[in-house]
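Office hours follow-up: a student asked to see two folded examples consecutively, so here they are.
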Amino acid sequence: MDVRAQTSMMFHLDKCIGCHTCSVACKNIWTDRKGTEYMWWNNVETKPGTGYPTKWEDQEKYKGGWEPKEKSVKLRVTDKFRGLANIFHQPYLPTIDDYYEPWTYKYSDLFDAPASDDQPTARPISLITNKPIDINAGPNWDDDLSGSPIYANNDPNFDKISESEKQALFELERLVFFYLPRICNHCLNPACVASCPSGALYKRGEDGIVLLDQNVCRGWRFCISACPYKKTYYNWKTGKSEKCILCFPRLESGQAPACFHSCVGRIRYLGVVLYDADKIEAIASAPEDELVERQREMILDPFDPAVIAQAEKNGVHFSIIEAAQKSPVYRFVKEWELALPLHPEFRTLPMLFYIPPLLPVLGHVENGIYDVDATDYFGSLDKARMPMQYMASLFTAGNEEQVRGVLEKLLAVRMYKRAEQVDDIDADLVKAMLEKTGLTAEACEQIFRLTSLPTFEERFVIPPAHREYTAELMGDPYTFKAEAGIGGFKGTPERGL
């Protein structure tokens, strides 16, 4: 058992209001300089939709992530031979049109235009070429357009639902959408790290944050092709790649990342989890329908004496272990099994988890009253406007039972609190729901408390930064466990920070 610590995140999608405050906060701090205009390390997408960059989930197009190979995995986009052949050419890169060409406006024309009968206008100017352009796309261009046949109809997650279900989603009374905020997942098995020929990308030993050394990067852009979430970007001005750094300077000073701190809906949670690194390769190569459960198994109990002893033996400070014991992410992911990874079939073992939204259901009108079946609340999940298979395609690699289990628990907590506060739900029905989901009244209270009424300190359990241990943790580089670098741990004392 190789116990390591990982800074992990969780987003509660039922609470996201799509305000994009997180995106603006990140943009103002990290990507406001030349060459980063089109970069959104944090972006908020509308689902159904094609996302940013366009159709980033379609790995037939981009070849990102890993694929199984003889009880191991291999990169889709490259290996030793393909990497050498394509080192000067990346055939699977998203183009600027898949993002958008950033622009500003030529405001000087409003002041310097000569006297005329026509009203002067500020024409859009490309920030890359400095020439006039026609604006055809932009960040969050498809915001709230879930009913659009142009955007939502091209969502790659529709591939696994029937044509009738797909068409029903575009009927006026069935229109539905939810927001999906995305940042770098800081994966346990990062494809970007394994694909980098120059070794510029590495995973920090002390907290698992994936960083990119600008002094080592040579701009080969394999990391962009290999990342299935397309959260590594190329700076056209500097010729280097860049990515989300999880605001590690803020974490080291005890502050939450900028996007977390600014979140209006308070959907974001951050904490430490302990995991067994010896299982990375076996879990990454597991069958698709087992990936979610196997990834949960890899997360260790921070209260287990054997885990604590092995963690301390590996150099994990006890204050970090204490932070793992208080971690909200551990509770949602492991204890309550409510949070799920985004597209686990990419096999990067992402450390950003999501609680899927409880989507609105289709009710009926009887005697002039709109109602949903009040005797079978779990049955309402089958009447949800969004097909269960769509949610499963996003969060469980197509396993409908796993995503249904999460939604049933969320529904049980909702009904438990409604019975307590409104008193219009039969107590026997609530008891049956708790028995079916395996929840207790105490667990429901804790889930409700941590979801609806958490303090800042409960949502962000940030351990102290023990910089004195960094050199010791990074002293011996973690070797790759298979071809192309399973686990993605690299580092030397010089490149560890």
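And the second, which I mentioned at the end of office hours:
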Amino acid sequence: MTNAIEVEDLTRRYRSGTALDGVTVSFEAGVIHGLLGRNGAGKTSLMSIVSGQDWPTSGRVSVFGERPHENERVLPRICFVREDQKYIEDCVARQAFAAAAMAFPTWDQDLADRLTRDFRVPARTRIKKMSRGQRSAVAVIIGLASRAEVTFFDEPYMGLDAVARQLFYDRLLEDYAEHPRTIVLSSHLIDEIANLIENVVLIDRGRIMLAEPADALRGRAVTLVGHADTVRELADFRQVLHSESLGRLSKVTVLGALEEHELQRARDRGVEVLPVSLQQLIVHLTSGKATDDPADAPAADPRPGAAAERRLTSVNTEVAP
């Protein structure tokens, strides 16, 4: 396994607070990664620093074994597109693509032309006059056609409608199959990208909660629905992520798949066992009290991986240190 990106003890502080707090994580080369977390969790800060567009307060970042900042051997191999992508004043799409072609030595103009037709990007409309969806299309075309060895998509596709987003996912997979590279997708639409991503990095309040293959997370949690006493018995000794009651009925989401004898006992007692989607799992793991003020946050546990350990108790999880 070769890592395209390695981050060690990375911290980024702003006047308003700490965006990244001792982040240590790696991104394997040639893999589609999902960088997930709530608004303000630190996703954009992490991508901005790794792509050389922002500077860390402390810590180490390595891309292809080198520091990316002001490094002409590394920067042309990284593409970072975001929802609020900035363009040259008054330019149209073809001018933005021409600029991208000069920036990325792996640029594929034929692909850019095909995607322009697929997404129906207007040829003569200035980008600043385009609709949000059209601007999003321009951004994802740059991300795909750049064919950069490391490509970050910081939710530029959020402005696309459902049909256009599916088109983006399809074209991404098609081109990735022919030209493998390291892709990092940041998204709130977790269920939509669940079948795309091979690895999940979950960040919450500036710290890595988990970093592991997506397949390992599937089936990590289940929801039990049935009589309150029976559900409570089945959930005993498990980490409870969420619970709600309606009279004598309970609905409880727990970490850890049930063993066969537990499943049989659930069936015998009329308890329904439901799968938990990746999005539901992420929501439950990050649904603790959030705060914008670092002074209001609980004191940090200095042990490596402690933030994840508190939520993943009794679960075999590969937590990033």
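Two things to take away from it. DSSP finds eleven helices and 13 strands in the chain. Residues 289-321 have pLDDT under 50 and may be disordered.
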